[in-house]
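Consortium newsletter contribution from the modelling node. Members have asked for a concrete example of what our holo predictions look like. Here is one, prepared for the magnesium ion complex that several groups have been discussing at recent meetings.
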Amino acid sequence: MTTLRTVCLGTAVAVAVVASVASWPVRAEDASGCRNPPARQELDTKWPINIGLLARQLIAYRCTDYMNDVAAAVAQARDWVRQRAPQVDNAAVVLDIDETSLSNWEVLYHDHFAFFADGPCDLGAKTACGWRNWFLSARGVALSPTLDFVRLVKTLNDRSGGKVAVFFITGRRDEPQMRAATEQNLRMQGYEDWEGLYLRPPASPGFVSVYKTDIRKQIEQKYHIVANLGDQYSDLIGDPGNDHAEKCFKLPNPFYFLPPDLPPAGIKCLSH
Ligand SMILES: [Mg+2]
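And here is the predicted structure:
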């Protein structure tokens, strides 16, 4: 009896695994997952949250309201920069890259919201795609509200008549291949030029927010940062009492989270 139960259980697990792998999204079939997206549904909180059901709701959100929510956040930044940049000298705008300027939705969807730092990336295969190789393939797609924003920013002048500077600060690691692929990806997607592109040095311990704040401080030695845009709080958090940007703008990203958490007192630059 015990043996039979063990066999039955083993078979059930095997079936479940096969079913799971068989439903693994494959790029060739539908790279976006939005051809037949799942329906939006309230999650049943009577039971512990089920990650499979949560993933379905993330796909539903990505295929419906996500881009409108990105556009709404970026529109706030656009209105602010239009108003503020002409009032200051050496005006600058800072942007994060991933899920702010470029979308990695294809790999997020392909990997079913799991994160694999390394390994090959073949989106036509039923195997995981490693993010390093995904980045090196330079296939991120511009988030169009952000691209339109950057194009607009480049037409603006600051108080002294100079162009508003654009800086990218990313947590991608600063190594020659990664830098080249990141620059190539940005340019291919329409982000034609920038004042500075900062990647995180390989030896940079601690939260990414510390590194990003340090870079904004460097930028502030010459520029006045009027706006900082990012999809993570870690893009926006500065020092206590100084976020090193006049205002910051949080884009939605329910697909992954990078620490640290939002401080209990919030972030001052988000108050607008
Ligand atoms: Mg990001």
